[in-house]
Amino acid sequence: MATLVQSAAFPLLLLPLFAFRSSTPSITPPPVAKVAFIYISLGLIVGGDNLMYSYGLLYLPVSTYSLICASQLAFNVFFSYFLNSQKFTSLILNSVVLLTFSTILLAVHSESAGPTGLSKGKYVVGFLCTLGASATYSLLLSLIQLSFQKVLKKETFSVVLEMQIYTSAVATCVCVVGLFSSGEWRGLGEEMDGFAKGRVSYLMTLIWTAVAWQIAAVGVVGLIFLVSSLFSNVISTLALPVVPVFAVIFFHDKMDGVKIVSMMLAIWGFVSYIYQHYLDDSKSKLSRSDANEVFNVTV
């Protein structure tokens, strides 16, 4: 069920899809078979990745889980270099290191006790699942960027919604099959009755969690479409150290020194990455300006 809610709310994206869909495509569409293969393959990866994350959170303390998840930026650097020809500068590497350390600092400082009564074997399973999920998630982001660059060459935002809808549909089908084949569906009624806040709160928790997942996923895929998979992962990692600020505002949590240092490291890393984009943009504008001047002199 925890895996299912991560993809099940994809029908909500159909309405904005129709709003963003272009009636006059500017390029020749790719073969249907190739597009179907991309969506099905990525959807299966999404379903497997969500399942691994769910098992990791089930078997590990939140602090350990977050600590391992911090490795996804390092994995993303590797895949971006080989799959997306990402160029790395000292500023980008500085950003990746700072954001990774920021997440690690927050995870080590966490006071969560986590699940109790679990065997060492399940702890190892949780560790391997979380590590595998982090690597798979980074690979998924790079593959999505590769798909946008090589096959899905649309210029409108509809391609982002299509990517999210079709991959989520495949992932949801996989999760539904798993839910029934494992027999877990038989215990849903008992789980609902045992929820402390009642059945309605249980359903509302599932519904709004599913909606939130779709909003977050569209943001992630949208950043890949507009910038790169690495930038999308940087933004996702930046969000973790910022969470304590909202915890202070809405839940009156305590903001201690470690959380402040973690947040400042994350902001420093983010500014470092943005400054690199500013330098690249300035260099690109200068090159275009020089090219125009040469052209005018020639004419």
Strand content: under 5%
* Separation of the first and last Cα atoms: 66 Å
What is the multimeric organization of the chains shown? single chain
Q: How confident overall, as mean pLDDT? A: 85
- Structural class, judged by helices and strands? mainly alpha
The best one-word shape is globular
Main sheet characteristics: none
Estimated helix fraction: over 70%
- Whole-angstrom Rg: 22 Å
Number of discrete helical segments: 11
Number of strands: 0
Stretches with pLDDT under 50, minimum 5 residues: none
Q: Keyphrases for this structure?
A:
299 residues; mainly alpha; single chain
In terms of topology, how is this protein built?
Elements: H1 14-20, H2 32-59, H3 62-69, H4 72-83, H5 90-109, H6 120-150, H7 158-181, H8 188-193, H9 199-226, H10 229-251, H11 257-298
Helix pairs in contact: 1-7, 2-6, 2-7, 3-5, 3-6, 4-6, 4-10, 5-10, 5-11, 6-10, 7-9, 9-10, 10-11
Describe this structure in words.
It is built from 11 helices and no strands. The protein has 299 residues and is mostly helical. The mean pLDDT is 85.
Summarize it.
With 299 residues, the protein is mainly α. Helices cover 77% and strands 0% of the residues.
